[in-house]
Amino acid sequence: MIPNLNIVPFVSVDHMMKLVLKIGVERFLSDLAAYIEEDFRRWPVFDKTPRVASHSADGVIELMPTSDNRNYGFKYVNGHPKNTREGRQTVTAFGVLSDVATGYPVLMTEMTILTALRTAATSAVAAKALAPRGASCMAIIGNGAQSEFQALAFKALLGIRELRLYDIDPDATAKCARNLAGLGFAITTCHSAQEAVEGAHIITTVTADKQYATILTDNMVGAGVHINAVGGDCPGKTELHRDILLRSDIFVEYPPQTRIEGEIQQLPADYPVTELWQVLTGAAVGRRDARQITLFDSVGFATEDFSALRYVRDQLQGTGLYQELDMLADPDEPRDLFGMLLRAASPPGAVAA
Question: InterPro entries this protein is in (predicted)?
């Protein structure tokens, strides 16, 4: 893609938006989902560790690393719900993909938009295996920055056509409905979470406040639904009443991380859960019958970001939608880094006084 191995392609926010629109949002989500599913299917080859988190009273800053022994990737990401009151994003992120053989970065990119896309794509990958057959209606409770991406991913991968939207902020619901207008959905704006879940085959919860909350109570969840629980993603933050968990078959990305951050932090440390990669490889059963309640306790895991970095890298060739970063020192003699510094003071061809 870039002949000079010491130049690193950087995808800015502007270039990421242009890349997504060039490919098409739904196709981007579908193709990205295929990369995510591929990497889940080869789960055993990855280095795995819970993300490294630094919590404060205002939010959290995290590093999410992983490697498949050919490439290494990490994401820097924050979560600060109070930011919206100051006109800032709750979540911002960037990521790097590197070649394990040399340690050289091969891609650096914004991941604020890319994280929204990969989160939605991962939700849809899980739902393909867990949602009731023929699901066509989804409730989305929490209509902030992630909601439209979730809707489009479920449309692209599962054929969802009916949306029931609710947020405690009516302006957020109006924004979501406005953004999705004309994109193939029948949209109902609702006045309560209870109203939103009526008739829904899939319930997506994707709220932002980092505290214990009860977005869904047990009486709101009927037999046969799939719950896509996205918002609970750090210690002390949940969205579902504990009784819902006890009635559901629970599926997770990486148990050591989800038990700290997910809905299952409300349950004993040995409570049985099934890992998503096992379902996708056929090693475990997903949905068994029409009355089963399935719950994807999604907190986001590093392999999903790794998949997103791989996908973006593979799409860049010939697009020109990146900048060339001169971020790797390249002295003529690899051991003479200081000499390279000295020569920078005397450009080639300069005549000494």
Answer: NAD(P)-bd_dom_sf, ODC_Mu_crystall, ODC_N
* Residue (of 227, 185, 222, 188) closest to 204 by Cα position: 227
d(CA 225, CA 240): 14
> What's the pLDDT at 208?
76
Q: Which amino acid is at 300?
A: G
Question: Pick the catalytic residue: 39, 167, 233, 305?
Answer: 233
Q: Which residues contact 120 (CB under 8 A, 6 or more apart)?
A: 29, 146, 149, 150, 152, 153, 154
Residue 312 has phi, psi (to 5 degrees) of -60, -45
Residue the block writes with tokens 């130049």: 7
Query: Closest Cα partner for 223 from 196, 241, 197?
Result: 197
The highest-level CATH class for domain 131-300 is alpha beta
Q: How many CB atoms sit inside 10 A of residue 174's CB?
A: 14
Bridge partners of residue 294, in order along the sequence: 226, 249
Element spanning 35, H or E: helix 25-41
Query: Any idea of the CA torsion for 148, 150, 153, 159, to the nearest 10 degrees?
Result: -90
Does 122 have pLDDT greater than 60? yes
What confidence score (pLDDT) does residue 191 get? Answer: 97
CATH number of 7-113+304-327: 3.30.1780.10
Average pLDDT of every residue of the chain: 94
d(CA 189, CA 299): 26
Percent of the chain with pLDDT over 90: 81
DSSP 172-199: HHHHHHHHHTTSS-EEEE-SSHHHHHTT
Q: Where are the domains of the chain?
A: 7-113+304-327, 131-300
- Model pTM score: 0.93
- Range 221-230 average pLDDT: 97
pLDDT digits (tens, 9 = 90+) for 18-75: 999 999 999 999 999 999 999 999 999 999 999 999 989 888 899 999 999 999 999 9
Backbone φ/ψ region at 271: left (φ over 0), alpha (ψ -120 to 50), beta: beta
Euclidean distance between CA atoms 334 and 16, whole angstroms: 34
Reply yes or no on whether 233 is catalytic: yes
**Chain centre distance of CA 258:** 14
Cα(196)–Cα(303) distance, integer angstroms: 32
Q: Which residue has the tokens 């280095």?
A: 47
